[in-house]
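Side project, low priority. Logging it here so it doesn't get lost.
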Amino acid sequence: MDYKRLTLFAGHYGSGKTNLALNYAYWLRERAPKVTVADLDIVNPYFRTKDAEADLRAAGIELISSAYANSNVDVPAMPKETYALIDGRDSLGVLDIGGDDRGALALGRYVPSILAEDDYEMLFVVNRSRPLTRTAEDAMTVFYEIQTACGLPFTAIVNNTNLGLSTTAEDVLASLDYADEISRLTGLPVKMTGADKRLAPALKDKVENLFPISILELYYMEKEGTSLGKINF
């Protein structure tokens, strides 16, 4: 699987884009000496990249996040280091974009520089198991909301359909036609299908561009306002 200097993950709330983005950062770190994760998700009060800071540091991955992450304050103030990541061009970057159009607004200020360099992927993360994106047509509504809000065109689809810890290989296989339909409607390729590593043996010969992922430890923990039944990776 090839990669660009900047990889941006965006999608509906609960699509599991944050866990996917972090797994992708670890994957990149095995292939490049310098990887940076930037948390542009200013609207998600639950699982944040900040929660994985110690593990990222141990893997040699830099994290850029708001000073207000994991506090009781969430404001649309992005760290100056984000500009350095995008303009400096000396590190591979993984950007976690906020869910839906409101979260994507934070990306807009960086779009001119991203387009000027033209070495990016903007990945639309879809999860058929989420209530508001159960059909390809519903997912397309989110697709256009995000793309219009941030002004950066999507370049590929990521199928991350899951039911959290209850996901089976059959759940993933049943989502392939869904992802293909979104691909048809957008004209964009399905870059990869994310699936829990425990399912990889059953899927490896059945799913093209399978991307085995780990559910980060904090996803097992019940957090305020959530339950294990609602957690998606």
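Brief comment: Residues 69-75, 219-231 have pLDDT under 50 and may be disordered.
Revisit when time allows.
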